[in-house]
Amino acid sequence: MKTIAITIDEDILERLDRVARPGGGRGLNRSRIIRTAVRDYVSRLERQLDEEREAAIVRRHRGRLARQAAALVRQQAKP
Fold first, then answer.
1. Does some domain include residue 19?
2. Inter-residue contact 30 to 16 (CB < 8 Å)
3. Residue 1 falls within a domain, yes or no?
4. In the chain, how many domains are there?
5. What is the pLDDT along the chain (79 residues), one digit of tens a residue?
6. Residue 20: which domain range?
């Protein structure tokens, strides 16, 4: 784990301090809250990027996929 310095708006810091409970037994402190928030945010961004890449692939191949789907439907419709 590395120690870094960040700049944060005072209103966010005040809200963070209200949530953090030093010695409260829940293990909540500024560092842990920020680490968790950053980890969750980065995970969401990674998922979003993956979904955008997959959507681009589907768009690029939509004609071929539509033809394949139609062929499968015709094949399954045969008695």
1. yes
2. yes
3. no
4. 1
5. 899 999 999 999 999 888 887 665 566 888 989 999 999 999 999 999 999 999 999 999 999 999 999 999 999 988 7
6. 10-77
Count CB-CB contacts under 10 A for residue 20. Answer: 16
- Residues 63 and 69: their CA atoms lie apart, in Å, by 10
Q: How far apart are CA 10 and CA 31, in angstroms?
A: 16
Q: Tokens 């928030």 label which residue?
A: 37
Q: How far apart are CA 59 and CA 4, in angstroms?
A: 41
Query: CA 53 → CA 16, 62, 67, distances in Å?
Result: 34, 14, 22
Say how many C-beta atoms besides its own lie within 10 A of residue 33's C-beta: 15
- Residue 7: which residues within 8 A CB-CB, separation 6 or more? none
Q: What is the DSSP letter of 8?
A: -
What does the alpha-carbon distance between residue 62 and residue 55 come to, in Å, rounded to a whole number? Answer: 10
